[in-house]
Design a protein that fits this description.
With 337 residues, this protein is of the alpha/beta class. The protein is built from 11 helices and 10 strands. Helix 6 crosses helix 7. Its cofactor is Fe(2+).
Length: 337
Protein backbone atom coordinates (compact mmCIF):
# COMPACT_ATOMS: atom_id res chain seq x y z
CA UNK A 1 0.00 0.00 0.00
CA UNK A 2 1.35 3.42 -1.00
CA UNK A 3 2.34 5.61 1.93
CA UNK A 4 0.11 8.61 2.54
CA UNK A 5 1.57 12.07 1.92
CA UNK A 6 0.36 14.05 4.92
CA UNK A 7 0.98 17.79 5.06
CA UNK A 8 0.57 19.72 8.30
CA UNK A 9 -0.66 23.24 7.42
CA UNK A 10 -0.31 26.17 9.84
CA UNK A 11 -1.95 29.56 9.30
CA UNK A 12 -1.54 32.55 11.66
CA UNK A 13 -1.26 35.59 9.42
CA UNK A 14 -3.87 37.74 11.20
CA UNK A 15 -6.37 36.84 13.91
CA UNK A 16 -7.29 33.21 13.15
CA UNK A 17 -5.06 30.37 14.31
CA UNK A 18 -5.63 27.44 11.97
CA UNK A 19 -4.08 24.00 11.74
CA UNK A 20 -4.91 21.28 9.25
CA UNK A 21 -3.67 17.94 7.99
CA UNK A 22 -4.14 17.15 4.32
CA UNK A 23 -3.54 13.85 2.55
CA UNK A 24 -2.29 14.63 -0.94
CA UNK A 25 -3.89 17.63 -2.63
CA UNK A 26 -7.50 17.43 -1.43
CA UNK A 27 -8.20 14.79 1.23
CA UNK A 28 -8.78 16.74 4.47
CA UNK A 29 -7.92 14.67 7.55
CA UNK A 30 -8.11 17.47 10.13
CA UNK A 31 -9.25 21.09 9.95
CA UNK A 32 -9.24 23.26 13.07
CA UNK A 33 -9.58 27.01 13.58
CA UNK A 34 -9.37 29.12 16.73
CA UNK A 35 -11.09 32.44 16.02
CA UNK A 36 -10.28 35.67 17.83
CA UNK A 37 -13.32 37.62 16.61
CA UNK A 38 -14.88 37.94 20.06
CA UNK A 39 -11.55 39.04 21.53
CA UNK A 40 -11.05 41.88 19.04
CA UNK A 41 -14.70 42.93 18.60
CA UNK A 42 -14.63 45.42 21.53
CA UNK A 43 -11.80 47.26 19.76
CA UNK A 44 -13.56 47.39 16.40
CA UNK A 45 -10.67 45.63 14.65
CA UNK A 46 -7.61 43.45 15.11
CA UNK A 47 -5.08 44.56 17.73
CA UNK A 48 -1.76 43.11 16.44
CA UNK A 49 0.02 42.51 19.76
CA UNK A 50 -3.11 40.98 21.29
CA UNK A 51 -3.49 38.73 18.23
CA UNK A 52 0.07 37.43 18.66
CA UNK A 53 -0.58 36.47 22.28
CA UNK A 54 -3.78 34.64 21.38
CA UNK A 55 -1.91 32.70 18.67
CA UNK A 56 0.66 31.62 21.27
CA UNK A 57 -2.12 30.28 23.48
CA UNK A 58 -3.91 28.40 20.71
CA UNK A 59 -1.35 26.97 18.32
CA UNK A 60 0.18 23.96 20.11
CA UNK A 61 -3.16 22.67 21.46
CA UNK A 62 -4.52 22.93 17.90
CA UNK A 63 -1.56 20.94 16.54
CA UNK A 64 -2.17 18.22 19.13
CA UNK A 65 -5.88 18.05 18.31
CA UNK A 66 -5.22 17.99 14.56
CA UNK A 67 -2.83 15.05 14.94
CA UNK A 68 -5.42 13.25 17.06
CA UNK A 69 -8.26 13.96 14.60
CA UNK A 70 -6.14 12.71 11.70
CA UNK A 71 -5.15 9.56 13.55
CA UNK A 72 -1.46 10.48 13.54
CA UNK A 73 0.29 8.91 16.53
CA UNK A 74 3.90 9.30 15.33
CA UNK A 75 4.22 12.59 13.39
CA UNK A 76 7.91 12.08 12.73
CA UNK A 77 7.10 8.92 10.79
CA UNK A 78 3.63 9.64 9.43
CA UNK A 79 3.83 13.29 8.36
CA UNK A 80 5.62 14.18 5.12
CA UNK A 81 5.73 17.99 5.10
CA UNK A 82 4.98 21.08 7.16
CA UNK A 83 3.55 24.11 5.36
CA UNK A 84 3.24 27.46 7.10
CA UNK A 85 2.10 30.94 6.13
CA UNK A 86 5.21 33.13 5.89
CA UNK A 87 3.48 36.29 4.65
CA UNK A 88 1.88 38.64 3.98
CA UNK A 89 0.27 39.45 7.31
CA UNK A 90 0.94 40.84 10.77
CA UNK A 91 4.58 40.30 11.72
CA UNK A 92 3.92 39.14 15.26
CA UNK A 93 1.20 36.73 14.18
CA UNK A 94 3.33 35.34 11.36
CA UNK A 95 6.24 34.81 13.75
CA UNK A 96 4.17 32.57 16.00
CA UNK A 97 3.23 30.28 13.12
CA UNK A 98 6.65 30.22 11.46
CA UNK A 99 8.60 29.63 14.69
CA UNK A 100 6.21 26.84 15.67
CA UNK A 101 6.53 25.21 12.25
CA UNK A 102 10.32 25.45 12.34
CA UNK A 103 10.47 23.92 15.84
CA UNK A 104 8.24 21.03 14.78
CA UNK A 105 10.19 20.49 11.55
CA UNK A 106 13.45 20.35 13.47
CA UNK A 107 12.05 18.06 16.14
CA UNK A 108 10.41 15.65 13.69
CA UNK A 109 13.10 15.96 10.98
CA UNK A 110 10.53 16.99 8.36
CA UNK A 111 10.83 19.30 5.33
CA UNK A 112 9.22 22.72 5.69
CA UNK A 113 7.82 25.14 3.12
CA UNK A 114 6.84 28.77 3.68
CA UNK A 115 3.62 29.60 1.84
CA UNK A 116 2.38 32.92 0.52
CA UNK A 117 -0.97 33.61 2.18
CA UNK A 118 -2.53 34.81 -1.08
CA UNK A 119 -1.46 31.67 -2.92
CA UNK A 120 -3.05 29.79 -0.06
CA UNK A 121 -6.36 31.51 -0.75
CA UNK A 122 -6.03 30.55 -4.39
CA UNK A 123 -5.55 26.90 -3.38
CA UNK A 124 -8.74 26.95 -1.31
CA UNK A 125 -10.47 26.61 -4.67
CA UNK A 126 -8.16 23.79 -5.74
CA UNK A 127 -9.11 21.74 -2.68
CA UNK A 128 -12.81 22.35 -3.29
CA UNK A 129 -12.79 21.85 -7.07
CA UNK A 130 -10.90 18.93 -8.66
CA UNK A 131 -11.77 20.38 -12.09
CA UNK A 132 -9.92 23.65 -11.46
CA UNK A 133 -6.75 23.62 -13.52
CA UNK A 134 -4.74 26.55 -14.95
CA UNK A 135 -5.07 28.82 -16.72
CA UNK A 136 -7.73 30.63 -14.74
CA UNK A 137 -8.49 34.05 -13.27
CA UNK A 138 -8.83 34.40 -9.50
CA UNK A 139 -10.33 37.32 -7.62
CA UNK A 140 -8.73 37.36 -4.18
CA UNK A 141 -10.90 39.61 -2.05
CA UNK A 142 -10.60 39.97 1.72
CA UNK A 143 -10.15 42.43 4.54
CA UNK A 144 -6.57 43.15 3.52
CA UNK A 145 -6.42 42.32 -0.18
CA UNK A 146 -8.40 42.94 -3.35
CA UNK A 147 -6.68 41.84 -6.53
CA UNK A 148 -7.20 39.84 -9.69
CA UNK A 149 -4.58 37.18 -10.42
CA UNK A 150 -4.02 35.30 -13.65
CA UNK A 151 -2.84 31.78 -12.80
CA UNK A 152 -1.09 30.67 -15.96
CA UNK A 153 0.14 27.62 -14.08
CA UNK A 154 0.51 26.72 -10.42
CA UNK A 155 3.39 28.86 -9.22
CA UNK A 156 3.24 31.10 -12.30
CA UNK A 157 1.04 34.09 -11.55
CA UNK A 158 0.47 37.54 -13.05
CA UNK A 159 -1.18 40.48 -11.33
CA UNK A 160 -3.95 41.85 -13.55
CA UNK A 161 -5.11 44.54 -11.13
CA UNK A 162 -5.39 45.54 -7.47
CA UNK A 163 -6.98 48.12 -5.21
CA UNK A 164 -5.60 51.65 -5.08
CA UNK A 165 -6.68 52.19 -1.49
CA UNK A 166 -9.00 50.18 0.76
CA UNK A 167 -9.50 46.47 0.26
CA UNK A 168 -13.15 45.50 -0.23
CA UNK A 169 -13.36 43.78 3.15
CA UNK A 170 -11.81 46.81 4.82
CA UNK A 171 -14.49 49.01 3.24
CA UNK A 172 -17.19 46.69 4.58
CA UNK A 173 -15.72 46.91 8.09
CA UNK A 174 -15.48 50.70 7.96
CA UNK A 175 -19.04 51.12 6.70
CA UNK A 176 -20.28 48.73 9.38
CA UNK A 177 -18.48 50.78 12.02
CA UNK A 178 -20.01 53.96 10.58
CA UNK A 179 -23.47 52.40 10.89
CA UNK A 180 -22.79 51.09 14.39
CA UNK A 181 -23.10 47.46 13.35
CA UNK A 182 -20.04 45.97 15.05
CA UNK A 183 -17.08 43.90 13.91
CA UNK A 184 -16.47 42.12 11.59
CA UNK A 185 -18.68 44.15 9.31
CA UNK A 186 -18.79 42.01 6.18
CA UNK A 187 -21.14 39.26 7.36
CA UNK A 188 -23.39 41.75 9.17
CA UNK A 189 -23.80 44.01 6.13
CA UNK A 190 -24.33 41.00 3.84
CA UNK A 191 -27.11 39.70 6.08
CA UNK A 192 -28.85 43.07 6.36
CA UNK A 193 -28.44 43.78 2.64
CA UNK A 194 -30.79 40.92 1.81
CA UNK A 195 -33.50 42.59 3.89
CA UNK A 196 -33.12 46.06 2.36
CA UNK A 197 -33.83 47.94 -0.84
CA UNK A 198 -30.67 48.17 -2.95
CA UNK A 199 -32.23 51.00 -4.99
CA UNK A 200 -32.85 53.22 -1.96
CA UNK A 201 -29.52 55.04 -2.34
CA UNK A 202 -27.55 55.68 -5.51
CA UNK A 203 -23.99 55.12 -4.40
CA UNK A 204 -21.18 55.48 -6.96
CA UNK A 205 -19.53 52.39 -8.46
CA UNK A 206 -15.81 53.19 -8.29
CA UNK A 207 -13.88 53.13 -11.60
CA UNK A 208 -16.89 51.71 -13.46
CA UNK A 209 -16.18 53.80 -16.56
CA UNK A 210 -12.45 53.03 -16.62
CA UNK A 211 -10.99 50.24 -18.75
CA UNK A 212 -8.20 49.81 -16.21
CA UNK A 213 -8.33 46.68 -14.08
CA UNK A 214 -8.15 48.38 -10.71
CA UNK A 215 -10.27 48.91 -7.62
CA UNK A 216 -10.96 51.82 -5.30
CA UNK A 217 -13.36 51.75 -2.37
CA UNK A 218 -12.52 54.95 -0.50
CA UNK A 219 -14.98 57.05 -2.53
CA UNK A 220 -17.82 54.58 -2.01
CA UNK A 221 -17.12 54.54 1.73
CA UNK A 222 -17.20 58.36 1.75
CA UNK A 223 -20.50 58.40 -0.14
CA UNK A 224 -22.07 56.28 2.59
CA UNK A 225 -20.62 58.64 5.19
CA UNK A 226 -22.23 61.67 3.56
CA UNK A 227 -25.57 59.89 3.16
CA UNK A 228 -25.57 59.02 6.87
CA UNK A 229 -24.58 62.57 7.81
CA UNK A 230 -27.40 64.01 5.67
CA UNK A 231 -29.98 61.71 7.24
CA UNK A 232 -28.85 62.58 10.75
CA UNK A 233 -29.01 66.31 10.00
CA UNK A 234 -32.62 65.79 8.92
CA UNK A 235 -33.28 63.85 12.14
CA UNK A 236 -34.34 60.86 10.09
CA UNK A 237 -33.93 57.34 11.47
CA UNK A 238 -31.25 55.55 9.55
CA UNK A 239 -32.70 52.91 7.18
CA UNK A 240 -29.88 50.52 8.02
CA UNK A 241 -30.97 47.65 5.80
CA UNK A 242 -31.42 49.96 2.81
CA UNK A 243 -28.01 51.54 3.37
CA UNK A 244 -26.41 48.10 3.57
CA UNK A 245 -28.21 46.87 0.46
CA UNK A 246 -27.29 49.96 -1.56
CA UNK A 247 -23.67 49.85 -0.41
CA UNK A 248 -23.37 46.15 -1.19
CA UNK A 249 -24.89 46.60 -4.62
CA UNK A 250 -22.23 49.20 -5.51
CA UNK A 251 -19.38 47.19 -3.97
CA UNK A 252 -20.32 43.98 -5.77
CA UNK A 253 -20.78 45.83 -9.05
CA UNK A 254 -17.31 47.38 -8.61
CA UNK A 255 -15.81 43.92 -8.17
CA UNK A 256 -17.76 42.31 -10.99
CA UNK A 257 -17.02 45.12 -13.47
CA UNK A 258 -13.28 44.52 -13.15
CA UNK A 259 -13.55 40.72 -13.24
CA UNK A 260 -15.55 41.13 -16.45
CA UNK A 261 -12.79 43.36 -17.79
CA UNK A 262 -10.16 40.77 -16.89
CA UNK A 263 -12.12 38.10 -18.75
CA UNK A 264 -12.39 40.42 -21.74
CA UNK A 265 -8.66 41.20 -21.77
CA UNK A 266 -7.41 37.64 -21.28
CA UNK A 267 -10.12 35.70 -23.06
CA UNK A 268 -10.15 33.28 -20.11
CA UNK A 269 -13.63 32.41 -18.87
CA UNK A 270 -12.53 30.15 -16.04
CA UNK A 271 -13.01 32.35 -12.97
CA UNK A 272 -12.43 31.61 -9.28
CA UNK A 273 -12.89 33.71 -6.16
CA UNK A 274 -11.06 33.44 -2.85
CA UNK A 275 -10.74 35.24 0.48
CA UNK A 276 -13.13 36.23 3.21
CA UNK A 277 -15.35 38.42 1.00
CA UNK A 278 -15.80 35.41 -1.30
CA UNK A 279 -18.32 34.22 1.31
CA UNK A 280 -20.48 37.29 0.55
CA UNK A 281 -23.82 36.12 -0.85
CA UNK A 282 -24.21 39.17 -3.06
CA UNK A 283 -20.89 38.47 -4.79
CA UNK A 284 -21.50 34.74 -5.02
CA UNK A 285 -24.93 35.29 -6.58
CA UNK A 286 -23.53 37.77 -9.10
CA UNK A 287 -20.89 35.25 -10.21
CA UNK A 288 -23.36 32.39 -10.42
CA UNK A 289 -25.43 34.45 -12.86
CA UNK A 290 -22.51 34.45 -15.33
CA UNK A 291 -23.67 31.41 -17.26
CA UNK A 292 -21.05 31.86 -19.98
CA UNK A 293 -18.22 31.55 -17.42
CA UNK A 294 -16.88 28.46 -15.70
CA UNK A 295 -17.09 29.74 -12.10
CA UNK A 296 -15.38 28.19 -9.09
CA UNK A 297 -16.64 29.29 -5.68
CA UNK A 298 -15.24 27.61 -2.56
CA UNK A 299 -17.51 26.71 0.36
CA UNK A 300 -17.77 29.48 2.93
CA UNK A 301 -15.53 27.65 5.40
CA UNK A 302 -12.69 27.78 2.85
CA UNK A 303 -13.09 31.53 2.20
CA UNK A 304 -11.83 32.76 5.55
CA UNK A 305 -8.27 32.02 6.67
CA UNK A 306 -7.76 28.28 7.18
CA UNK A 307 -5.00 25.72 7.44
CA UNK A 308 -6.30 23.52 4.62
CA UNK A 309 -5.46 26.13 1.97
CA UNK A 310 -1.92 26.47 3.35
CA UNK A 311 -1.38 22.71 3.41
CA UNK A 312 -2.69 22.44 -0.17
CA UNK A 313 -0.41 25.21 -1.45
CA UNK A 314 2.56 23.70 0.41
CA UNK A 315 1.91 20.23 -1.02
CA UNK A 316 1.66 21.58 -4.56
CA UNK A 317 4.77 23.72 -4.14
CA UNK A 318 6.78 20.84 -2.68
CA UNK A 319 5.79 18.62 -5.60
CA UNK A 320 7.04 21.40 -7.90
CA UNK A 321 10.43 21.25 -6.16
CA UNK A 322 10.09 24.10 -3.68
CA UNK A 323 11.50 23.82 -0.16
CA UNK A 324 12.42 26.14 2.68
CA UNK A 325 14.91 25.67 5.49
CA UNK A 326 15.18 26.49 9.17
CA UNK A 327 16.29 30.03 8.28
CA UNK A 328 12.75 30.72 7.02
CA UNK A 329 11.75 34.26 8.07
CA UNK A 330 8.28 35.83 7.85
CA UNK A 331 7.76 38.66 5.37
CA UNK A 332 4.69 40.75 6.33
CA UNK A 333 4.59 42.41 2.90
CA UNK A 334 5.42 39.39 0.70
CA UNK A 335 3.70 39.93 -2.65
CA UNK A 336 2.32 36.98 -4.60
CA UNK A 337 3.69 38.43 -7.84
Amino acid sequence: MERRFLTLGIESSCDDTAVSILDGQRDVKADLISSQIKDHAPFGGVVPEFASRKHLEAILPLVDRALENAGVSDPAQELSLIGVTAGPGLMGSLLVGVMTAKALAQTWHLPILGVNHLEGHLFANVVASPDLEPPFICLIVSGGHTEIILAEDFGNYSLLGATRDDAAGEAYDKVAKLLGLGYPGGPIIDSLAHKGNSEAFSFPVPLRSSDEIAFSFSGLKTAVLWAVKDLKEKSVDLPIADLCASFQKAAVEALMTKVERAVEVTGIRKVAISGGVAANRGLRNALQRKKDWNVFIPPAIRCTDNGVMIAAAAYNGYKRGLISDLFLTPNPSWPLV
